[in-house]
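The protein record reproduced below.
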Amino acid sequence: MSRDYTEPSTAHKVADELDINAKFCWDQADACHGLTTGLITANALIQNGQIRSALVCTGERASKGTNYITEQFNKGTLTAADINDTLGAFSVGDAGGAFIVSVSEDGKGIESINTQCDSRQRQLCYVDWENSSFAMKMGLICSRTIKLVANMLPKTLNNLDWQRDDIDFMLAHQVGKRPFDIYLKSMFRLPDEKSIRTYKEMGNLTSASIAVSWDLLASAGRLRANDKLFIVSTGSGIVASQIGITL
């Protein structure tokens, strides 16, 4: 979401600084869902034999938007009447994350991907810097995203041939307590120890959210071979993906 340049793609900068002689470098933009879009694309390229490995990475500086909106309030361009439309800008955090995606030698890895969009909701959360126009109607976007995720869940579990209690960890994009609790407690009916909460200390980590949650679990030694991970990735648009992975 926060690119280093208009051109070339930030991926070229990453490849150069990491001394990676990549055959293919490109940026993908998909709001908070961006890293997951990268994972889905890498998986598709691996499945059709075009590549064997990919580095999928993101580095977000969401505080840039917070600073801009704060400035608009200080100038009086925004007033108390705009708080509901901008509140989400004050609960974001800066973060980076990456995955290396490779051909599976043992049949494990990504087992199923289910993605759906409801583009009629695109005006609920958007930023148009050129026209100084934006909206972050977090209450509405959360409620409609939760509905989309709930409608998708039976099909995803059926595709995976999993039951809810087969899931060892549920990793969700996190924007706050209410949607996270609905996913964990109501939708998946899982105990707290089968997920990790990052929103309390880190806020909404936008496209880095899933990667940070995964890294925290791995760093704490909580992930083991054969664990089943269920990823719920969402973003404005709105878009939602559910991915089942066996470690």
Observations:
- The CA atoms of residues 146 and 205 lie 18 Å apart.
- Helices lie at 10-17, 34-47, 63-75, 83-86, 138-160, 177-187, 199-202, 209-219.
